[in-house]
Write a structure and sequence with these properties.
Elements lengths: L1 H17 L5 E3 L2 H8 L7 E4 L4 E5 L17 E4 L7 H11 L4 E4 L6 H10 L4 E4 L3 H6 L4 H22 L8 H14 L4 E2 L4 E4 L20 E6 L1 E3 L2 E2 L2 E6 L6 H19 L7 H14 L11 E3 L6 E5 L12 E4 L2 E4 L3 E4 L2 E4 L9 E2 L11
Parallel strand pairs: 1-5, 3-4, 5-6
Antiparallel strand pairs: 1-2, 2-3, 7-10, 8-9, 9-12, 10-11, 13-14, 15-18, 16-17, 18-19
Helix pairs in contact: 3-4, 6-7, 8-9
Length: 368
């Protein structure tokens, strides 16, 4: 992987040079990990004029949650506790003879930005912007492999839960059990806080589990994800508990399923982000569900669970091959509940079979 990280840093260096900066300071943890292989707590990465450095407050642990540093990258551990790796990196840039430094202004606090300016007053600070995030949008096959394994783990955890007795158990208990099963199957941990909603809570995006117990006839909506080697995937499904679905539940489920299918089918290289959103949204709009819909139909996934691109009505840009995204439309009826169906897919050209579905748990409306 060393050559992969080196190539990523070189691409970023070229972007910096085009913007007039010979050096760059990366502090956003996901960006540090993308370029250095590891992101120990508080670490900063300096792309220097003569040498690249990973600066951190303690030696990297090599644990799964922070990754392993690129072996070709020199790691500099700060002397003493309480040091700021970003400030130390700016000092190192001065030692290397830099006169300018591109920084991630969207991540640095005002205090840290001022501290960098104080330690290196003659260093011209420029804004790196979202350059690293833009590099991260298109994944290589190794990254996609990590997402694929994470999706398999999430599918396993969800499948096992569906085989257990659910009536009488609380949303909170089910969420905790799902997260335990993710780790049991090899995940670094959950990709985000697992959401379990029952009855009137079902179908709500980002619902935090409560002590409400599962009852017969409820909709049960579940959204979970696994992190594997730092890469995060997502899956969401909705089921009916203990009995045949009511007519209104079947109608609502079929509607959301049709919207989700339309969104998935729109995932082709060159498709505008907003057109993917529109494909799913217009199915729901045509059925009269114009109020209370999620702000977006999906989003990119990778080292973060919510990254570019955003599949939203006003989003600018077009899809590329090898971009993993979620498609997750949903409808929630206040006081009754709702449906959410969520998959992680990778954009592929039609010649390669079209979008690759990573999360394969059935989307049939099951009565559990």
């Amino acid at each position: 992987m060393s050559e992969v990280y080196a190539a990523r840093r070189e691409r970023l260096r070229e972007r910096c040079a085009a913007g007039g900066s010979a050096t760059a300071l990366v502090t956003r943890p996901a960006n540090v990990r993308y370029l250095a292989g590891a992101a120990p707590r508080g670490a900063a990465l300096l792309l220097g004029s003569s040498e690249d450095l990973l600066l951190c407050g303690a030696p990297p642990s090599g644990e799964a949650d922070e990754g392993r540093p690129d072996e070709a990258l020199r790691v500099q551990v700060l002397p003493g506790a309480g040091g700021d790796a970003a400030v130390a990196a700016a000092d190192a840039a001065i030692v290397q003879g830099a006169d300018s430094l591109a920084v991630e202004e969207h991540h640095l606090t005002v205090t840290r930005h001022r501290a960098i300016g104080a330690v290196a007053p003659r260093l011209r600070l420029a804004d790196l912007g979202g350059a690293v995030e833009q590099l991260r949008v298109i994944k290589d096959e190794e990254e996609i492999s990590c997402l694929r394994i994470g999706a398999e783990i999430a599918d396993q955890a969800l499948g096992e839960l569906l085989e257990s007795i659910l009536v009488g158990r609380t949303e909170r208990h089910l969420a905790l059990e799902l997260e335990r099963r993710l780790v049991d199957h090899g995940a670094d941990g959950p990709a985000f806080a697992t959401s379990v909603g029952t009855g009137p809570n079902s179908g709500r995006r980002g619902h935090r589990p409560t002590d409400r117990r599962v009852e017969e006839g409820d909709f049960l909506s579940v959204c979970l994800g696994a992190t594997y080697r730092g890469y995060r995937c997502e899956i969401g499904r909705t089921f009916v508990i203990g009995t045949s679905p009511a007519d209104w539940q079947i109608e609502l489920y079929d509607l959301v399923f049709a919207a989700q299918r339309a969104g998935r089918e729109a995932l082709v290289p060159g498709a505008a982000y907003r057109d993917v959103d529109r494909a799913a949204r217009q199915v729901l709009d045509s059925a009269g569900h114009t109020e209370g819909l999620p702000a977006l139909t999906g989003h990119g996934v990778g080292l973060e669970i919510d990254e570019d691109p955003q599949l939203a009505p006003a989003a600018m840009g077009k899809l590329d091959t090898c971009v993993p995204v979620t498609v997750e439309p949903g409808v929630h009826l206040p006081g009754r509940g709702g449906v959410r169906i969520d998959d992680t897919l990778v954009v592929r050209p039609e010649a390669d079979g079209g979008p690759e579905l990573l999360t394969i748990t059935t989307k049939e409306l099951l009565a559990l």
